[in-house]
Design goal:
Number of helices: 29
Helix content: 55-70%
Shape: globular
């Protein structure tokens, strides 16, 4: 059974779900084993919003029935009849859930959102019914107590430990009254998470900025103008241009637009998502989420939600995470002061030449940073964009996968496997011997109903304890699609993100374990970003740029002098990037350390006061302001855990120095160690042990500080 989340064996739920399961219905399409090639593929061609709710309810019923059989097995508890049996259970629900979550993230409309509002509290009750099943827990506990003496493999011992720990952390040992209250909290939170996410999606879909004339395009490169025109046409605004309310559109606009009043307008629409005092405002929802999380933590025996969340992380405690963040915060803020001074000097020079006299504001930061980059490094990032074709960079990612891990990607013909949208393409992934590794789905473009940002999904986890099951993973982005026949040109930052998310995909594809619960990316939150952040380092490697950063018109490789400029400016603007991110991570942690069950936090006021206490530079806002912080309020996943990117980057910087200080990016021995001890092992080993096995020692923070330019490079 995968992902045992903190979720009473409810006879009402059982009865309701059982009724749903007894009648054969079209939703069985989403429950049946996947058919077709490659061990079966998701039936996207037969899925619809109408099938989602009934399929999920029937899947829950089937899963509960399976678990009841395990719980009531008359045989003494063993790994095989309890833990392995649980791993076999819930397959129908897994299949239906895969389709459900894809609809929610990539095809969300009014029908899908109604399903989410209806089903999420039921899913929360269902999860509670598992982890609070006393008979089942007694069997798990019995196997746990004998795990080291029963002849189990190391992987079986760790799986048993993980499942037992998850049950305990989810309240399996609580008294009945506490279990009942815990279940009520989880159901309430599920509804709140859904409302938060849907409010945010609505603000991203419905709020945008229309540019009425060619004069409004001043400073924008042709690729952006074209993309904004395509978006306007899609919305029926012919002859105009639309800047959508997503990061992939807003950040390039803020970087290149020379129209300051438009920069401010676009910026305000973006930073006020979920914070407009209307029906979509998320502040009251956040206050309730924080209060309920604090109450839940108290029921489970933890001082705060942050202490509960971090117990099973690499950091272990909020204090250790805060120590790392504080160590980086001060030098990052100092660097921001230097960056702002550079920008202000440039703005003052413009004023002296007859331009407007301004003080740098948040909507100016990206624009003037770009001007400073040109002045200091003779680098205009617009010079890079003609060489950064989305399709060529995708080929570059495949090249890296082949060189490091021997993975080869072969695109499948359109229509050979079902997809959920025409934008989606599919590749078969083989190993060096031509044997199937898995499938990779790619969904690159923004559209209405698709959540913003970039992410990786695992549609099916790798496993082999009952047969060799190949993984299916996806990468999802929000690039603006060009006109027919035009290549999609992306920014350097977007190229870095593309490689980052592909790192997650490789983490899933490289998995080589027995049990699905410990497969692929099912690892500690502050470790999962390590493989993905590490892969970013291969983008600027000479061989990748020479082969795949080629001009979209001439096919000429990116000039060596331009690559040299990129390398010289590697730590440029790291003050901004670090503070923008780290402010959110600190506020996330402080919110969850401060939250109490008997008091309601006002998020906007808390954000302002916390940032003031930190000494947040006035020229920067958090990368994700609290009312739009989907990482921490659309679910529990990254709550009190946004620090994870910094923790993981400490590992990343240290690991990259192992390559760069040795034989370089293509060191086959180092790549083998990386695959053997990091990418392939999933959660079968403690991540700290896995890292030590790869690196030969614990990570050191000095590498992180050097990477960000806060320390001199190593000699």
């Amino acid at each position: 059974m995968r992902q045992l989340l903190p979720l009473l064996m409810s006879t009402t739920l059982l009865a309701t779900a059982a009724t749903a399961a007894t009648a054969a219905a079209p939703q069985d399409t989403l429950l049946q084993p996947w058919s077709g090639p490659y061990g079966g593929v998701p039936p996207f061609d037969r899925a619809s919003p109408a099938l989602l709710g009934p399929a999920l309810e029937a899947g829950m019923a089937a899963h509960l029935a399976e678990l009841e059989r395990i719980a009531n097995d008359p045989a003494p508890p063993s790994f095989e009849n309890t833990i392995a049996a649980m791993e076999r259970s819930g397959r129908a629900l897994d299949r239906a859930s895969t389709v459900y979550y894809i609809f929610g993230s990539s095809l969300s409309d009014a029908a899908v959102q109604q399903v989410e509002r209806d089903i999420e509290p039921k899913l929360a009750a269902f999860r509670d019914s598992i982890t609070q099943n006393e008979k089942l827990f007694r069997r798990i506990a019995a196997v746990y107590e004998t795990r080291t003496t029963a002849g189990l493999t190391a992987e079986q011992q760790r799986l048993t430990w993980l499942i037992h720990r998850n049950f305990v952390r989810a309240g399996a040992s609580l008294e009945p009254a506490a279990k009942q209250r815990l279940a009520a909290i989880n159901q309430s939170l599920a509804g709140l998470f859904t409302r938060f996410s849907q409010n945010l999606l609505a603000d991203e879909n419905d709020r945008h900025t229309v540019l009425d004339s060619a004069a409004d395009l001043a400073g924008l490169p042709e690729s952006l103008r074209s993309g904004f025109a395509v978006e306007a046409e899609r919305r029926g605004l012919h002859g105009k241009w639309v800047v959508t309310n997503t990061r992939s559109a807003v950040e390039p606009f803020l970087t290149y637009s020379s129209r300051r009043e438009l920069r401010e307008r676009v910026w305000r629409v973006f930073v006020n998502r979920g914070d407009n005092g209307d029906a979509r405002d998320n502040n009251a929802i956040i206050g309730e989420i924080l209060q309920l999380r604090a109450e839940r933590a108290g029921l489970l025996g933890y001082p705060t939600h942050a202490h509960w969340r971090l117990e099973d992380s690499m950091a272990r405690t909020p204090e250790r995470a805060m120590d790392l963040m504080r160590a980086v915060w001060a030098p990052a803020v100092a660097r921001v002061r230097e960056e702002v001074a550079d920008m202000q000097r440039l703005a003052d020079a413009e004023a002296a030449a007859g331009g407007e006299r301004i003080t740098i504001e948040p909507w100016d930061y990206r624009y003037y940073a770009e001007q400073v980059r040109k002045a200091k490094y003779d680098l205009d990032t617009n010079e890079l964009k003609p060489y950064l074709q989305l399709e060529k960079l995708r080929e570059g990612m495949f090249f890296v996968a082949a060189e490091l891990f021997g993975m080869h990607f072969v695109e499948l013909p359109a229509g050979s496997v079902p997809v959920y949208h025409p934008d989606v393409r599919v590749w078969r992934v083989d190993d060096r011997d031509g044997k199937l590794v898995g499938l990779w789905y790619f969904d690159p473009y923004a559209r209405p109903g698709k959540q913003s940002g970039a992410w990786m999904n695992a549609y099916r986890s790798q496993e082999r304890f009952d047969g060799d099951v190949k993984t299916i993973v996806s990468n999802n982005s929000n690039f603006t699609e060009g006109r027919d026949g035009e290549p999609v040109l992306i920014s350097w930052d977007d190229a870095v993100t593309l490689f980052h998310e592909f790192g997650h995909a490789l983490h899933g594809l490289a998995s080589d374990v027995n049990y699905p619960s410990v497969s692929g990316t099912n690892v500690a939150r502050d470790y999962v970003e390590f493989p993905s952040q590490l892969l970013e380092h291969w983008l600027p490697v000479k061989e990748v740029l020479e082969r795949f950063a080629v001009h979209y018109r001439t096919g000429e490789p990116i000039p060596a002098e331009l690559v040299a400029k990129v390398e010289r400016s590697r730590t440029f603007n790291q003050g901004f990037a670090t503070v923008e991110y780290l402010a959110g991570a600190l506020v996330d942690m402080q919110l969850h350390l401060a939250a109490r069950a008997d008091a309601r936090i006002a998020p906007d006021a808390f954000e302002r006061e916390a940032l003031a206490a930190l000494g947040m530079p006035r020229e920067i806002v958090m990368r994700h302001r609290t009312p739009q912080f989907g990482h921490i309020f659309s679910g529990d996943g990254y709550s009190a855990g946004y620090y994870s990117y910094l923790w993981s980057d400490t590992l990343t910087a240290d690991a990259w120095e192992a390559f760069s200080a040795g034989k370089g990016a293509w060191d086959r021995d180092m790549a083998k160690r990386l695959r053997d001890h990091v990418f392939s092992v999933g959660n079968t080993v403690d991540p700290a042990d896995g890292y030590r096995a790869f690196r030969g020692r614990d990570p050191q923070i000095d590498a992180l500080m050097r990477k960000r330019g806060f320390m001199p490079p190593a000699k």
